[in-house]
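Email to the structure team, subject: Amidase, hydantoinase/carbamoylase family model.

Hi all, the expression group asked for a predicted structure before they design truncation constructs. Nothing fancy, just the tokens so they can compare against earlier work. One-line instruction: predict Amidase, hydantoinase/carbamoylase family, return tokens.
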Amino acid sequence: MKRLMSNLHEIGEIGKTEEGYNRIEFSREYFRAAETFLDKLKKLGLKAWIDEVGNVIGEKAGRYPELPYIIIGSHLDTVKNGGLYDGNLGVMCALECMELLAENETVTDHTIRIAAFNAEEGLRLGGTFGSIAVFGTGNIEKENNLEELPEVGLTMENIRNSKWEENKIGAYLELHIEQGDQLFKKGKTIGIVNGIVGIERYRIKINGESNHGGTTSMESRKDAVKTAGELITYMYSLCEKYPHPFVFTIGDIKISPACYNVIPEYAELFVEIRDMKRENIYSFIADIKEFSKRYKDTETEFIHVLEKYPYVLDENIRNIIEKVCIKNNISYMELSSGAGHDAMCVPEDKPAVMIFVPSENGISHNKMEFTSESDIEMGTLTMFETLLEMDKQI
Ligand SMILES: [Zn+2]
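Reply from the structure team: attached below.
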């Protein structure tokens, strides 16, 4: 544990400031951390390199080279003023698994690849950029901000060169902090993640008519904000129909022309819905579309901005994690992830799983992020034993 905690702080504190931890993708701090991590992999005798998009990869050959890789890891970049644990912890627990394999002189059947991904937070390039490049999934041209590529010194060629052979991808295992408060609130040590929620984003545009705010009677107004307000109330009440992890957010509201004495002719709501069940998201949208039709003085338009399908994590390996927890008397629960992760970039026909450890008070993307040493220890034990079992079973 001493070794793991020391690695966690050594690499995690690269880029630490008063305000938080800053290893923004492609920054000098990110690459300093990547180089430090690379050295550690090489010291362990692994074949290791930094690929063309800035991911750090290490490889420990297995007994049967024809078998596909088992991949373990997480990301090394942070948000602006992030915490010590997001991403970094998963990478250091994966490193600890490699240390334990070396220490015990264990030779696995499968080749194990350890990955510290770049640009998971995707502040410039869009989320999970590094893992999308490696796994070759998703529509990188559509979903990532590739116009930023020259800014970070990359070309499409670099992305293409970073892709792994698809038939070499065997399975993926990632440990991550929960970033929510379910484990903390319920006093559980391990979260067995059943999936990563899907996301839909809409811009709801409401068109009315502007007029004098003093002389136009309340009955004769075509007030876009009035419709927006009633729609907002309706949407929040509708949320009560759907259980967790369904979440709904209005992240921004625009009003025009935005003066005290002019009835707004225009309002726009930036809406995001997340859930594991696509049918819930669709029925929510259908309901609000129907509801909006009752407003005859204004016109409501729904612009579909983004759709990401829910990602289901592998049930067989989830069962392995559960057995490991029971065997070691570690408390656990099943949950889903409301946040996106590198795991969801693994091709859907390959098994991927995630282990969550508690975030104290559910805080993350903040320098106050905290996970206790004993939870980290149990998380690593669970991860290591799951890895050994995966090696036998996949
Ligand atoms: Zn993360």
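The first strand starts at residue 47 and ends at 50. The pocket of zinc ion is lined by residues 75, 86-87, 120, 176 (CB under 6 Å). Ping us if the truncation boundaries need rechecking.
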